[in-house]
Structure prediction request, 222 residues.
Amino acid sequence: MAEWTRKVQPGQSMRNMPAKAYNEFINAALRTQDMRRVGDVGRYAETEVARGYVWVINEAGSDLGAKRILGLEEIDIKPTDNELEYNQRLCYRGVTPAIPDHLHKFCILIQDAPNDQVFVRAKVAGPVQVRLYVNDVNHKYAIIKDTETAYLETTPFGGCPIHWQESGTGEVDAVVMLGQPVMPVQFAEATSAPAGGTLTVKLANSDGTTSGPDLTVYDGGL
Prediction:
């Protein structure tokens, strides 16, 4: 049993209560308040999950603010630990995002998250505000960036749809749709004649222009 979980004996002073134990009490009280707002435990869990919310504890190594990104590790409370608790809410351990481990397993913080102290709410599905690094204004999707908690970055395919973003490149505010990764058809325009079984292309944008670096396509039939 961890030292901070040891119970106080009758007559024993609580003056030296570990900070982690006190924070856990506060965390439990806040969750209870949320459950009362929606009527009952079962309805609370159903509503939170349906709206794309989970609880996460920040284990990235530093305090993080709202809109920051965490990769999701295993759930903190399993059915074998406490089935009632498990059925009431989903609690995850959150770490610094890493590719490929967290490519489709990440969350956006809804609340400030002090390092390794309390569980806070985060979004894993549905529309959410986030900071976004725009590599190319023609990109329509967003993915995590390896070891980066401050923002998602744009990509031409394979990520979360971007619903809105500020103009320009670099770091901007944006709204993305989590939980709906897509792999759209990507068209390309040849920039050289086929030679030696390869073809050089550039990605084609919806407006007919091309963007990005030259890409080499390999095909034994060329």
Notes: The chain has a mean pLDDT of 82. The chain has three helices and 13 strands. The chain has three domains: 1-124, 127-184, 188-218. The two ends are 65 Å apart (CA to CA).
